[in-house]
């Protein structure tokens, strides 16, 4: 134990990951969270209208997300994640009703692309080499000219993958950020591409187990603590101001700011941050199908990107929701239900009880310009480190990126902190 106290601000995945690493290393940690709950953009809650717990948004992670795996291991939560256990990606084309499943093999060598039955219908072997162009990408390259947009491989695989993973329109999306994901997933072989889905909910996998471990290590978490400002002496923070309640810092104490980018701009305008964001819509429908097969499906040719079916709910993700801003919520609920109904074989005109949520600042826009505005965890200040999916993780806004950023911030404290 170093005798110092580390103050982590923000209990999203980045803050929880930083606190976890530090607590497990014997550091004294306090987390301050503005909301009455932890998890930030990755959480579950009881929805009173639907009468069940739902996730704020469907989250897909892959077995190759090593920081996620490490986090789940350290929080004893590996067995809270489910899925088919196979690197298989089912799809439906809503405009034609056609269904197919991309079936990768588990090994590193992708022999699945040689099999017509395993690849996207209507594609040929050479189409799969189009992705290699992404690997050559420089930091200013977008994906605008990287794919033939008329090709089936683009329409049925790359476009849904890019929009789902980057939450950014393909023409402006950063090729380097796609590369960051590609290297950890498809580039690493099928074993790294097994989708992992929380069996119960996001909080049950990513939040509650971590809070349990933190408590076991005497870390404290203070809810309803919204940081307003910090009091400085030279390049060292001396006190934290939570709406007038001051927390004074000792000489060796550290602060990890694990806050969203938009609040960081207010708090410390001199820190470069992404400035442009994209929203995500999540539509949850109660479906009464006792023998419903659980899992997820990619959707092309409609409004939906992904349909997740689990625990009596069909939940739909619509990325880059700005594209649909002119559609009233009521109409959206009806239009999206038609897609879900087609997928599940239900009546398209009988919209069941549902809830639609819009996360306005779901992720930063994954463009080269915004990517170049991301600082590292190390600030150069004497006792401040940064975490958050928006810091320079090499990935777009993801759980993997957020956890990675928290680990990096913890390393800064442990390496530089005296
Ligand atoms: C709908 C949706 C779908 C998504 N889908 C996926 C997906 O499929 N796969 C994937 O990997 N990622 C996905 N993401 C992205 C992922 O959820 C985020 O990248 C990640 O959760 C961000 O974590 P964070 O800790 O960096 O930020 P946040 O989760 O925003 O955490 C910041 C925390 O700081 C708190 N806070 C804010 N201001 C203050 C203050 N002044 N004082 C104290 N506390 C404060 C907030 O309340 C919050 O708890 C999705 C996001 C959304 C919204």
Bound molecules: flavin-adenine dinucleotide
**Low-pLDDT runs:** none
The biggest sheet, with number of strands, parallel, antiparallel or mixed sense and barrel status, is: 7 strands, mixed
The CATH topology of the largest domain is: FAD/NAD(P)-binding domain
Oligomer: single chain
Mean pLDDT, to the nearest integer, reads 95
Q: Strand pairing plus helix content: what structural class?
A: alpha/beta
- Whole-number total of structural domains: 3
Using only C-alpha atoms, the radius of gyration works out to 22 Å
Shape: globular
- Total number of beta strands: 20
**Percentage of helical residues?**
25-40%
Strand arrangement, major sheet? 8-7-16-17-18-15-19
Number of DSSP helical runs? 10
Question: Could you give the topology of this structure?
Answer:
Blueprint (H helix, E strand, L loop, with lengths): L4 E5 L3 H12 L3 E5 L11 E4 L4 E4 L5 E2 L3 H9 L6 E2 L5 E6 L5 E5 L28 H4 L16 H15 L8 H10 L10 E4 L3 H15 L3 E3 L6 E5 L2 E7 L2 E4 L5 E4 L3 H7 L9 E10 L8 E6 L5 E5 L2 E6 L10 H16 L9 E11 L3 H4 L12 E3 L12 H18 L2
Parallel strand pairs: 1-2, 1-14, 2-10, 7-16, 14-20
Antiparallel strand pairs: 3-4, 5-9, 6-9, 7-8, 11-12, 12-13, 15-18, 15-19, 16-17, 17-18
Helix pairs in contact: 1-6, 1-10, 2-10
Flavin-adenine dinucleotide binds next to helix 1, strand 15, strand 19 and helix 10.
């Amino acid at each position: 134990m170093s005798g110092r106290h580390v103050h982590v601000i923000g209990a999203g995945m980045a803050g929880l990951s930083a606190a976890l690493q530090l607590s497990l290393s014997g550091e004294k940690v306090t987390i301050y969270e503005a909301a009455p709950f932890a998890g930030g953009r990755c959480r579950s809650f009881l929805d009173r209208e639907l009468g069940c717990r739902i996730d704020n948004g469907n989250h897909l992670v892959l077995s190759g997300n090593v920081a996620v795996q490490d986090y789940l291991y350290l929080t004893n939560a590996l067995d809270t994640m489910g899925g088919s256990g196979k690197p298989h990606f089912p799809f439906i084309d809503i405009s034609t009703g056609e269904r197919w499943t991309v079936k990768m093999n588990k090994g590193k060598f992708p022999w699945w692309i040689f099999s017509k039955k395993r690849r996207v219908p209507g594609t040929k072997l050479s189409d799969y080499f189009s992705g290699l162009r992404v690997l050559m990408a420089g930091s200013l390259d977008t994906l605008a000219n990287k794919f033939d947009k008329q090709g089936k491989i683009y329409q049925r695989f790359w476009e849904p993958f890019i929009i789902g993973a980057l939450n950014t329109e393909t023409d402006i999306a950063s090729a380097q950020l796609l590369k960051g994901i590609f290297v950890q997933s498809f580039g690493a072989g099928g074993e790294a591409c097994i989708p992992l889905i929380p069996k119960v909910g996001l909080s049950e996998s990513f939040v509650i187990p971590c809070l349990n471990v933190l408590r076991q290590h005497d870390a404290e978490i203070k809810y309803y603590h919204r940081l307003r400002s910090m009091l400085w002496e030279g390049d060292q923070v001396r006190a934290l101001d939570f709406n007038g309640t001051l927390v004074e810092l000792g000489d060796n104490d550290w602060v990890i700011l694990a806050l969203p980018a938009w609040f960081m701009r207010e708090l410390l305008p001199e820190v470069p941050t992404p400035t442009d964001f994209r929203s995500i819509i999540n539509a949850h429908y109660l479906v009464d199908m006792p023998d419903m097969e659980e899992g997820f499906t990619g959707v092309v040719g409609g409004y939906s990107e992904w349909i997740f079916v689990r625990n009596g709910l069909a939940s739909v993700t619509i990325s880059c929701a700005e594209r649909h801003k002119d559609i009233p919520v009521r109409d959206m609920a009806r239009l999206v239900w038609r897609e879900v109904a087609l997928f599940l074989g239900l009546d398209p005109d009988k919209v069941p009880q549902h809830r639609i949520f819009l996360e306005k600042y779901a992720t930063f826009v994954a463009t080269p310009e915004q990517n170049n505005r991301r600082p590292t965890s190390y600030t150069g200040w004497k006792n401040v480190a940064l975490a958050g999916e928006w810091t320079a993780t090499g990935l777009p806004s993801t759980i993997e990126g957020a956890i990675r950023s928290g680990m990096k911030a913890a390393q800064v404290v442990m390496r530089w902190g005296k």
